[in-house]
């Protein structure tokens, strides 16, 4: 399996990190998880291209995870692609309908399949996926792909999510802010380190990074490392990880 961070940023731009998007590829299958602002460009830069993306899996409906959905639809339509499947938590159908209600000329341009999923097991784009409800300001699902890859979506750090991720070769986890930012609905390095303590995880990538984290990476890693002694790194846009 190959996991590519298309966007490791968040709702406030850093200039380097686009909004959330992760590409999951295995045996010729390709799935885009989240589609925030900039992801359409990163898809092109990655060499995969928007033509290849026929399924998008959404963690939740915040703008930094869905902003490029309509631009992706339009690019695919212009390229002569006819389908797009959009899978996400409850409310995804209404979201897509409402987006198309605002941009009426996009209605009917693609054959859209929209599917809502709940915590538990399901299949998407040929991948067997487990979903787990996170702690965030909107309903949000974390996704796990077998023993290979887990993505937290947006979430506070908590034991249930750490349990869900345990045993993954790769975990990409929201780590939006350094410790001195007073935050809810996202973790701080300290809370993440405490929840990951003692867990068996191959490698952790920190993502969903706000500008507040710039220049603070070393102290964030130290804060996590005070509780969790595993391999922790920062995600970067267009970074690809191969995982067996
Ligand atoms: Zn969010
Ligand atoms: Zn977000």
Describe the structure.
- This protein is α/β, with parallel strands linked by helices and 244 residues long.
- It has one domain: Ribonuclease Z/Hydroxyacylglutathione hydrolase-like (Metallo-beta-lactamase, Chain A, 4-Layer Sandwich).
- 23% of the residues lie in helices and 28% in strands.
- It has seven helices and 14 strands.
- The protein has helices at 39-45, 63-66, 69-78, 92-102, 159-165, 189-196, 217-225, and strands spanning 2-7, 21-26, 29-33, 55-57, 83-88, 111-116, 120-124, 127-133, 141-145, 149-151, 170-174, 203-207, 232-234, 239-242.
- The protein has a seven-stranded mixed beta sheet. Strands 7-8-9-10-11-12-13 form a seven-stranded mixed beta sheet.
- Strand 2 and strand 3 (29-33) form a beta hairpin.
- The protein is globular.
- The mean pLDDT is 97.
- Residues 60, 62, 136, 154 line the site of one zinc ion (ZN).
- Keywords: Hydrolase.
- It comes from Natronorubrum halalkaliphilum.
- Residues 18-208 form the Metallo-beta-lactamase domain.
- This is MBL fold metallo-hydrolase.
- Pfam families: Anti-Pycsar_Apyc1.
């Amino acid at each position: 399996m190959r996991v590519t961070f298309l966007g490791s940023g968040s709702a406030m731009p850093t200039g380097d990190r686009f909004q959330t998007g992760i590409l999951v590829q295995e045996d010729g299958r390709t799935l885009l998880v989240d589609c925030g602002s900039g992801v359409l460009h990163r898809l092109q830069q990655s060499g995969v291209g928007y033509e290849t993306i026929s399924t998008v899996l959404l963690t939740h409906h915040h703008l930094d995870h869905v902003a490029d959905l309509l631009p992706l639809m339009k690019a695919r339509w212009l390229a002569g692609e006819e389908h797009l499947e959009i899978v996400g938590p409850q409310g995804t159908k209404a979201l897509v309908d409402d987006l198309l209600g605002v941009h009426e000329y996009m209605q009917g341009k693609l054959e859209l399949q929209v599917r809502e999923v709940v915590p538990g097991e399901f299949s998407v784009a040929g991948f067997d996926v487990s979903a787990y409800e996170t702690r965030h300001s909107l309903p949000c699902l974390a996704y796990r792909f077998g023993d290979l890859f887990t993505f937290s979506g947006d979430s506070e750090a908590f034991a249930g999510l750490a349990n869900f991720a345990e045993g993954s070769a790769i975990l990409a986890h929201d780590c939006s802010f350094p410790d001195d930012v007073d935050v809810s609905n996202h973790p701080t390095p300290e809370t993440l380190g405490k929840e990951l303590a003692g867990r068996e995880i191959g490698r952790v990538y920190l993502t969903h990074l706000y500008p507040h984290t710039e220049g603070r990476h070393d102290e964030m890693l130290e804060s996590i490392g005070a509780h969790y002694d595993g391999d922790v790194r920062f995600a970067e846009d267009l970074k690809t990880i191969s995982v067996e």
